[in-house]
């Protein structure tokens, strides 16, 4: 066993028995490289990554390759989900040098951590135009031995280039109507009108952009924005990217039509998409949106919940294929013969037609990914439910994909927000309770008394890595959503602690935000990126949480910090709207107010509950809701807000102007509409 045996990361533990003498990331590894006079080979991946597993089997488990690595390098293995800062810095270098990136990421460094050669997946021997890993290792060793000065010069130039990228985004004033219109126009140009979504293959769920489109429609009534969101959501829900039996979404589709997914299922995707579909239902009343939101919630709670109350990071793409090997998608795909074997001749043929399973197959070796075809006509709903239940039971007997059971603070924050709102919308108190349980775990295990976060935990034990900006932002977002849904002001207080840390430790003098704290480990550069990736940018997620907190409390420093952070959205709205979706969604909230709703009334009074539910279902972008008894000190919004002649009442304010209080849910509903 190498030095990864004591790691808390399931990904690192997967490599603990490699013959490669892996080191975890840390100063000691680089000091050893310095003393030995050898370069560092840095390998970055994550547990659910298919090609990470392939490279491990082909190269890192190979005795000869491992021996060569051990002789000529110090090998460092990093879980990108534990150290997103390390991943971000070196991925930026890989993308700048090669024009593309991905995982596994392979970077060769000097003992000072400066990169000089890059790649992603390497096969052990050259094939299909890709250099072999053995050739790469030998080439790096030769360059290090014979051209050390040149290597150092290359590394220095790369580091200087990275240092100059921090101010490249441009910052303008807080975005307004013009920027939102330009962003919508840009998205319309890139929209795939036939298949939904944006761009070509591979196609990723555009969760953050969908939130912007729904908020823009809610504020302006723009039907084009709603149409793009609705059609994309329907295309994804009918495609193979959505698990038609067990619920939940895969990471992305390898094709433009959403048919064949990359089968890993990530907590963050499912949290973000659960919320999108719940918000789509709120906007349209769509039965499909309701079903997908609830099925995704049930997947998250049923498949990803941990014994400690949090949510695991992911399910692997690969699983045992039944013949002793591992194959991507083996758990999820079907042939016509398999359907008949499980369901009988008649139902097997019915299922094949209903789910699009063909003799040719849509995946590998004649297997198909289940999808729902459009325009299939009326079907027997009971028969469909019976077929689905039997196939799900049959699938459960297959070898299951592995689960990465570490708890990531940011992704649990996203799940808390989604489960709290979905539970409230559909009267599922169990989902709200699951959100509360996860929030309790984050407070107990991840958060200290100063409002500082640890990024990960496993089995209820905190890891060793500091939280990054997205952790603070997304956990605060989750706590704020939970405060609005439960009426428990303690979640607002916890959010305030986290956001104070954002202001004091992550903000630059010009209002921009860094991804790491001012007292975090110093890397070759301090990462700073306002654009969305698989999750909302920490920068714009923090802006959103700061804005909501300010609306709840009237805290001017938090409103000012939010507006300063949103300056980058104005600069990128027209240039790259697909990659600043969360920032655009937050900007919609800022333009709309956001509106503040205080519901005052007796707990248990049906009118209080109805007004509270009406407020939560108000689609005004970024609306914040407080509910409590008259005279309650749980929320600042409740201060000096009486009931109306003993009847529960709702108060709606926007931009320092308040509507007349109302005890009529219909009036409250109209106050939260566009222009209300």
TrEMBL record:
InterPro entries: 6-hairpin_glycosidase_sf, 6hp_glycosidase-like_sf, Ssp411, Ssp411-like_TRX, Thioredoxin-like_sf
Protein name: Thioredoxin domain-containing protein
Domain of life, per lineage: Bacteria
Domain Spermatogenesis-associated protein 20-like TRX: residue ranges: 2-162
SUPFAM superfamilies documented for this protein: Six-hairpin glycosidases, Thioredoxin-like
Gene3D superfamilies reported for this sequence: 1.50.10.10, Glutaredoxin
